[in-house]
Amino acid sequence: MNPSYLLFDVGGTDIKSALSDNEGNLSDIRRVPTRRGTPNPAEALVDQLHTLGTELIAGSTLATPESVGLLVCGIVDEDKGLGVFSANLGWRDAPLRHMTSEAFSLPVGFGHDVSMAGAAELHFGAGATLGSKVNNAVMLVIGTGIAAALFVDGHAVSAGGYAGELGHAAVPGGLKCPCGAHGCLETIGSAGAIAKRYSAASGTQVRGAREVLEAMHAGDPVAKRIWDEAIEAIAFSIAQLCASIAPETIIIGGGLAQAGEALLEPLRRSVRSKLSYHREPLIVPAQLGEDAGLRGAFLKAQEARA
Amino acid sequence: MNPSYLLFDVGGTDIKSALSDNEGNLSDIRRVPTRRGTPNPAEALVDQLHTLGTELIAGSTLATPESVGLLVCGIVDEDKGLGVFSANLGWRDAPLRHMTSEAFSLPVGFGHDVSMAGAAELHFGAGATLGSKVNNAVMLVIGTGIAAALFVDGHAVSAGGYAGELGHAAVPGGLKCPCGAHGCLETIGSAGAIAKRYSAASGTQVRGAREVLEAMHAGDPVAKRIWDEAIEAIAFSIAQLCASIAPETIIIGGGLAQAGEALLEPLRRSVRSKLSYHREPLIVPAQLGEDAGLRGAFLKAQEARA
What's the complex ipTM? Predict the structure, then answer.
């Protein structure tokens, strides 16, 4: 029988879980809120994963999983299997790989949610059509916050789990950030910031960046200003990367990427205006959508089995 | 007899040349102006290297060199042996490795001047005392301009030669740059910019950043402002790196590093003030001084022989 894998993508808001076959085809995808505010966040998480996993396996016609793929948010030490730090979920230096392996009595492949969503995009998504152009690539995930997966000379960059925190790099015009720093990209360039800043500036509460885009298309000058400032800030951060690690490809994912060319076209224009002899990157949309994390968890699960 | 190597470090202003033994001990170090403004800059360079090398070998008691180590400035494709582009020296896609190998009938190890000065610092200098702290490191060379060698997860970053161009990343308050972009770090944070901006602001022509530092120590408020703005700009760029590739160590080299703690102490303070949960890097001075490039050329020459 075809081997199967048990997959988890743990974010600050939701846990996505699924089973997959040996080719990474997902089945039984479920999304539930991440349990929060418990005194022992790592134990609570593994408990929750165990319940979810047991239900998934019981309800499935696939073979019993050979291994688990587990991705978590925050600062992650993949080599040591540690959740180093999660501002949202509260653990510090939690041995999540070992704990999950004990819970399921299975090997666990462990990684960072955004890094592995990027790896999945390179493997199954945008990267599959771009060939060697992804040897130096950045997957920028723009949603409530902003994070990135960096690939340099064909290697995923880890730097002990601290790499790719682009949402917390300063940009001109950036604001005071809950993280404690000032001017972070996330305070102006994220989908969350676009909605929040438009609500404050217009007096009209909106639920998301989509409504700001619609207001802009309807001629609202405040919406246009907020949208343009977000793009300018994202372009600033991309231009910084062009001068440091010089990616050939920038893959834009996350909720804001659903804006399509309304985001990408002015973003390309703004990046180009900031470069001189630098190498100008291709800027393309992500292709895997919200399942990128689970596909990345599959890559980790397969690694753990081998 | 101990093998010897012929070494060249080609900058926009000077060519440094030397011989070395098998341990990288340099001898017969010479520095001559780079020939400029010729119609065929690549041919003119190789001619000049041939003359220099022939004289060096004739005057030395070392064995005939086993190989050549050649570093050049600009955008360099190490794999293909090409000088891709040099704004100062004028070549484009010049097969400098092959041309130099033909001229000397010797194998040539070829690299980028700043990248290999960084590799030499890691191998012989600051890195030798820092252990694994240089797996993720940046060597920032601050002189007339600013460039960097990046090391990520134990690998030197190349990105086709486009990596490490930190002098041409934008910073708040940065000015129009001769490169064609706006706001480049080099326009405010380089030794060249410090001298130029102080001369313009004070009406007193100075020859270098050292005189600005002396004026600051003597209580000149204009000198203090220019110096502080330079440090603030350099710190901004370092903080950007902390959010993207998260170096554990920043090694500061180039002429400005001669200021020692007058540079490093406020730089550390300014970087720290910009970080929150990011990993704070050690900021240390380079140890090899102006011979770092030749020591890097030795590493390349040794590679080419092997």
Answer: 0.93
